[in-house]
Amino acid sequence: MVKRKKSSSTSKTWLWAMVTSALLVQVPGVSFAEDADKQDQFSFDEVVITANRVPTSAAKTAANVAVVSKEQIEKGHYSNLGDVLRDVNGVIVTTKGFAGANQTIRLNGDDRVLVMIDGRRISQPQGVIGSRAGIDLSSIISLNNIERIEIVKGGASALYGSDAVGGVVNIITRKGAEAKTTLDFSVGSWGTRNYSFSTQGSENGFSWYITANKKEQDYTKYNVLNPALTSGSSKGDSYRWPNSKYEGQGFTMRLDKTIDDNRSVTFNFEHWNDEGGQPFGVSYPSLGSLNQSTKLSNNWALTYDFNKQKDVPGFARIYANYADQGFYGTYKSRTQGFAYQTGWQLGDKHKLITGLDWEKGEVLENTYHDDNYDIVNYKNKSVTNTAFYLQDIFTVTDKWTVTPGVRYDHHSNFGGQTTPKVNVNYSADSSTDIYFSYNKVFKAPTLDDLYYDIDYYGTTTKGDPNLKPEKGHVISIGVNKKISDDTTVTANCFSSKLTDAIDWDYDNNYNAWARNIAKQKKRGFELDIHHKLSEHYYSEVGYSYVHTENNQNNAGYVVEDKNSQPNGYRVKVGYADTKWDVNVNGQSATGLSRNRFIDSNYWVWNLAANYKMTPAASVYLNVYNLGDKAYELTSGGTGSSRGNYPMPSRNFQLGVKYSF
Questions:
Q1: Closest residue by Cα to residue 372 from 291, 290, 493
Q2: Does pTM surpass 0.90?
Q3: Where does the secretion signal sit in this chain (predicted)?
């Protein structure tokens, strides 16, 4: 194990040197003969789909919406999807500090978040161990097929059913256009190598967009948070984390066929596969045969779009997702589904949307492994859900829009569930929109919740087939304000309550049972400001607050101490012209519980720099954790076990990208 002592003065010198370079590099010598690239600022005129299931301008959605564009992803050269989403104000991504570690997202402080690709669910029926999340974001490897990501914060069960308690993340893929092939290669700290390929084109109404990528990393380094966990260390020392090698690869394909102006057919396929070490924390970097993790995903979908030129487009879709994960055992699952949506413009005031969803989730195998045993937990268990939804976008006047909706889900285990909603949008003037939304929400029990059944060394862990769904409501109030052509402001506050929350009840002998034993309530606030400082300089500032309380077994509400971002801060300052795009972004959290985390706050700064050498070729540099900060995003336990999952120390990525 190799360690080094950090120099405080050296770290500060690094930080300020890189920040200064990011803001001032090459500015005097750049030619401004061409128009500068547009800044990646949020636009209220931008059309989004996810919030209302039909194209709607962002300002009129009556929801807290954020959009990540393909330009932001390309210029950011993010390591993974979790890093992309963590750059969005108010989004919490919980993860451990090594490549391939599980990543779960929280919106409005809730990990019951629905993640979709092009509007189809990719959540896994067994759920993610240790959370209420339905998908591990680290299993989605490819980023270069993403057109944009739409993030809707707040309850959305009336449109999307289970999982959409905290909100929805919809990853929208790229459609092939011009004939173009792009190669991307980068190297970085700790033996990191990234290889990426994409090709696209269109001919005679047929288009394609295909990507392939591979990432290798020999190991990870971390900065010590808790010296008690690493013998002979001091806080801030840098160590090589044993058992942290990683390798991942992905392949995606989107094929589109245009039938006529109103109809088209799309086929999507995604393959992701990775393998890496899975340390049990810095105190237990490996544990016998349980030190490796594998993740395999194969997803496909076939979609028929119709009425594309009408006010309410429709579609019919069939899809299937398959996952095979190996860690602690073998976990194979499959999801199959069908979705249909249509609608009508009724006069000038009513836009009616209706649809049908059917989905079957199966766990094909759930077997626990260790050095001595292979224990079959459960297998060949499934649940099905059939749902019908109806929504009316009612334009009352030029200023008022009311959007009521209702969805009915019938689940094979718990029966029927009705979730209504109503959203109200008021356009105070041409630059100000105020909204209110009320949404009933629910989260269906996962297959692990229902059927988990294992007896290991005399300790029993059991699910319950008679569990009820978690249910509640979310209320949001917000404003979207365009102060000028250069400045936009969004603000949102929310409150949510959940009953029948599912948790695992433990006795003194560590036996556990899944039960509807908890209540939860949350409240929070977000503020975003985007400002163009000048022709070439831009800035973003964001603040978010989340307060969560749990009431288990009616023992009274207690503040949740695992929250890794009670107060969140985002700052970005950038420079862009025809050659350069450089930005420094800071991410911070305060108010962390010292019972669960070593420090109550942290600041982390990152640098992204891109230089366009020719119209076809560019080079880029990313430096992560500029100040070499020791921090954590996951609680590793209480007392002396805090700090078991520190995030990576300072590292860099240098790459070149070429298109032809």
A1: 290
A2: yes
A3: 1-33
Q: Which helix (H) or strand (E) holds 211?
A: strand 206-217
What local confidence, expressed as pLDDT, does residue 290 receive? 64
In angstroms, what CA-CA distances link 259 with 207, 262, 284, 397, 521?
Answer: 12, 8, 57, 37, 49
Model pLDDT, residue 370: 67
DSSP per-residue letters across 395-441: E-SSSEEEEEEEEEEEETTTEEEEEEEEEEEEEEETTEEEEEEEEEE
pLDDT of residue 4: 45
Q: Are 443 and 482 in contact (CB under 8 A)?
A: no
> Taking the mean position of all CA atoms in its chain, how far away is CA 6?
33
Between the CA atoms of 641, 647, 649 and 653, what dihedral angle is there, to the nearest 10 degrees?
160
Q: Are 567 and 640 in contact (CB under 8 A)?
A: no
Tell me the average confidence (pLDDT) per consecutive run of 10 residues in the chain, 660 residues long.
44 38 37 38 73 87 92 91 94 91 93 95 88 89 93 95 95 95 97 97 96 96 92 89 92 97 97 90 72 90 96 96 86 96 95 97 86 77 97 96 97 94 95 96 94 83 93 96 93 96 86 91 96 94 96 91 94 95 96 94 96 96 96 86 93 96
DSSP per position, 501-569:
EEEEEE-TT--EEEEEEEEEEEEEEEEEEEEE-SSSEEEEEEEEEEEEEEEETTS-EEE-S--S-SEEE
> What angle is formed at CA 52 by the lines to CA 209 and CA 499, rounded to 5 degrees?
115
Per-residue confidence (pLDDT) for residue 299, from 0 to 100: 97
Rg (CA), the chain: 24
* 245: its two tokens: 């090698």
Quote the pLDDT of residue 287: 65
By the 10 Å C-beta count (0-12 exposed, 13-18 middle, 19+ buried), 398 is classed as: exposed
Beta carbons within 10 angstroms of residue 420's beta carbon: 15
- Dihedral sign for Cα 604, 69, 315, 142, please: negative
In the numeric block, which tokens belong to residue 351? 């836009």
SS3 string, 98-151, reads CCCCCEEEEECCECCEEEEECCEECCCCCCCCCCCCCCCHHHCCCCCCEEEEEE
Domain residue limits at 335 = 3-659
Q: Is 580 helix (H, G, I), strand (E, B) or coil?
A: strand
CATH number at residue 344: 2.40.170.20
